[in-house]
Design a protein that fits this description.
By secondary structure, the protein is an alpha/beta fold. Helix content is 26%, strand content 21%. Strand 11 and strand 12 form a beta hairpin. The longest helix has 15 residues.
């Protein structure tokens, strides 16, 4: 959606590591998917070499990460430290919240994307989400997946209609989860490469721009017993090269309301 600089990834990741070190409060780094362009063992090895942090790193695999029938096995073999034993769907449990990493499927075959961009969760995935929330009913839960839940509104883009609108079935499935579980206070996604933020049923639905595209943004999400905040930062000022930017697509970065928010977590604390 904006000019990309994947060849500059080592520099961008160095800047992010420096930011994390200065901040001193980061528990882990989460990636919302499409770490590689296609699932190949050599690209997985390159990703493991590149995405090294002083804090844990947890990816939620996207469609480009799942371009072969045995993609799940490739990732578990090539980067086992990033996942739970034997599973690319897993939970990150902290004292003040639980993050559920749930890669959505594409088309009919689980964890295999060929050409159809039809996101869905299986019944087994939904049942696991329910079980984890039941196991930790007094903590806020964050769901990290790849496909956004909502389209990008015309109010943000200036276009006649919303764009990147997912299928109604996927949208309704996630909104039903949010409706049934007040603990589910945030849903994170990537895929559309656009910053969006919307509140539904007391939950914040967030998508992110592409880290390797100008102006090289990332989000900081903070959860405590009373509030959840989302803030978007950029690294453009620190890069050592001239990066192009398409002003006609400035909606990718979004308005302030599409980038940052704070919500209270009364539903969880009570």
């Amino acid at each position: 959606m904006q000019p990309g600089y994947p060849e500059r990834l080592p520099e961008l990741l160095r800047l992010l590591r420096e930011w994390i070190a200065r901040d001193g409060a980061t528990d882990f780094v989460a990636h919302a998917g499409d770490i590689v362009d296609a699932c190949r063992p050599e690209l997985i090895r390159e990703a493991v070499s590149a995405f090294r942090f002083e804090v844990p790193f947890y990816p939620c695999l996207g469609n480009h990460d799942l371009t072969r029938a045995d993609a799940r096995d490739c990732w578990l073999e090539g980067a086992p430290q990033w996942f739970a034993p034997g599973s690319i769907q897993f939970e990150i449990v902290r004292g003040d919240c639980v993050v559920q990493v749930v890669p959505n499927h594409w088309g009919e075959t689980d964890f295999w994307w060929r050409d159809i961009q039809s996101p869905r969760f299986s019944e087994a995935q939904l049942a696991r989400i329910d079980r984890v929330i039941a196991r930790y009913p007094d903590r806020p839960h964050v769901l990290c997946t790849h496909s956004p839940v909502l389209g990008v509104s015309s109010a943000q883009t200036g276009l006649p209609e919303a764009v990147h609108v997912p299928p109604e079935g996927f949208r309704d499935t996630v909104l039903d989860l949010v409706r049934r579980h007040p603990q589910l206070c945030c849903v994170l996604s990537g895929h559309n490469h656009i910053n969006t933020l919307a509140e539904r049923e007391g939950s914040v639905l967030v998508s992110a721009s592409a880290f390797a595209s100008a102006p090289f943004e990332f989000k900081v999400i903070e959860v405590d017993g009373n509030a959840l905040s989302v803030n978007t930062y950029e690294l453009a000022a620190g890069v050592g090269f001239d990066a192009d930017y398409d002003l006609d697509r400035a909606f990718v970065q979004g308005r302030p309301r599409d980038r940052d928010c704070t919500i209270t977590l009364d539903a969880v604390s009570t």
